[in-house]
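RETRY 2/3 - previous attempt timed out on the joint model. Re-submitting the same 550-residue input unchanged.
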Amino acid sequence: MNTLILTSIEQGLIFSILAIGVTITFKILDFADMSVEGTFPMGAFIFAKFITSGFPPAISTLLTFFFGSLAGLITYTLNIKLKIKALLSGILTATMLYTINLRLNGKSNVGLFEFDSIYDGFEPVIILVLIVFTVKILMDLFLKTEVGYLLIATGDNETLVRSLGEDSNKYKLIGLMLSNGLVALSGALMSQYQGFAEITMGTGIIVVAIASIIVGDTILRNSSFLKMTTRAIAGALIYKFIGAVAIDLGLAPTDLKAINAIIVILFLSYNTFSPVKVKKMKKIKAAEVAKC
Amino acid sequence: MLDIQNLSKTFNIGTDNETQIFNNFGIHINKGECTGILGANGCGKSTLFNIISGVIMQEKGIITLNGKNINSLKENERAQYIGRVHQNPSAGVSPSLTILENISLSDKKCQKFTLRKLIRKNKINEFKEILKTLDLGLENKLDVEVKYLSGGQRQSMSLLMATMNKPELLLLDEHTAALDPKTSRLVMDKTQELIKTQNITTMMISHNIKDTIKYSDRIIMLDRGEIILDVRNGHITEKELLSIYNSRNYGSPLTEAV
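RETRY 2/3 succeeded.
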């Protein structure tokens, strides 16, 4: 298989776990959680810490989920308990994590080539497909539970959740912890894939996540058949693939950030100005005029 | 039933915008009755509902419901006793969930929410029967997301969901104000049917004097945090109500009983 395609599929799969995580805050809870900028590299550094301390790769990877979810707990505390605005809470958490990430291994770049990874002995794509599939199935199952539905309802209408006798903040906490846990897991998978943990690997990662979600939402937009998780995975894969094609066409990797932003702008404007939508809006307007 | 004593509430304490809404306010609501509450904007109607349902806390005053002091209970803890329908039809439902999902959530109201599947097939027929009572055909649209329903349908859903666990007290906060006259009538009739068949004690805020007279057992008028009128229905005419309303309330007077 073409290396470019394979690499973009593998990285797309890693980013799809990030996208599923951010879907929980961005789409379900309507919470702009910037803390993921710190949680993604945190996943990498936590993994580095455990693997260099002699833990097996699978356990080290799983532990990143736990520690990532603690970052969600910090953002929750700042936002809900200390009443700091959501956006700022996330930025403050990410800023704190920057220092923590540096402190964890005492350096800003930890090489992991000489250590075991969960990809050992297999093609990374196979392991990644298995992990993404497991995460997706677990998330889908969770969202069908009573607690899962309350998480969705919390993003929709907190008043309703309280009128059902539940504390809506509890569900924000669950959402933030789950989201940051998945983002850290994604960071851990990335560090093993690229062979090092690096302090800047979280910079702009929120754009990657939101871009994947937006691209995913654009596919078969009017169909309720596609689940949120499926959209996030497809979005991350397509998004990564577009970036890879851009590089293949001769653009420098340093141009990627601008390309990322342009992809988001293009998909967002497509959502606003797509022929189907414009036609629909015209129809609605005509119906309104007729009513008057 | 509901008893409020010595209630005091001031907003923005210590600022230039300090506003006292209630000062030693008291009210007693009788069991099984529908009490209509009238008053201009800013008279304290919604603040009273917010205090009763625990959305905001009072500085002073005791609220007892069926003999239980509910002062220390949070909004979500009071939900087991109190149901509320808001003016905004979307406030009582989860718009991105389907009718079936909304009803299923509401069926679990004030029970423990677990990691079990929410939608249970064996409950669907029961929910269909409940939805049938609304007479809106919603029982055939179980998989439709609530955001696609009309305002009247959504408000009827909200009403149904607020009363599914037979609350001890139902608060209707101008719940037909956002609806057109025909839909408003339909929702009011459904409300009447629900509260009478289940014998739910109800407090109803409305700016519609005709509705208040038609559906209430008792009528209370508030002005600047005080009760200026408290009569049994039948002891006052529409004209008299209107004249008291206009004499005490600021703003443009109502010319007819809307």
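The CA atoms of residues 24 and 175 of chain A lie 6 Å apart. Closing ticket.
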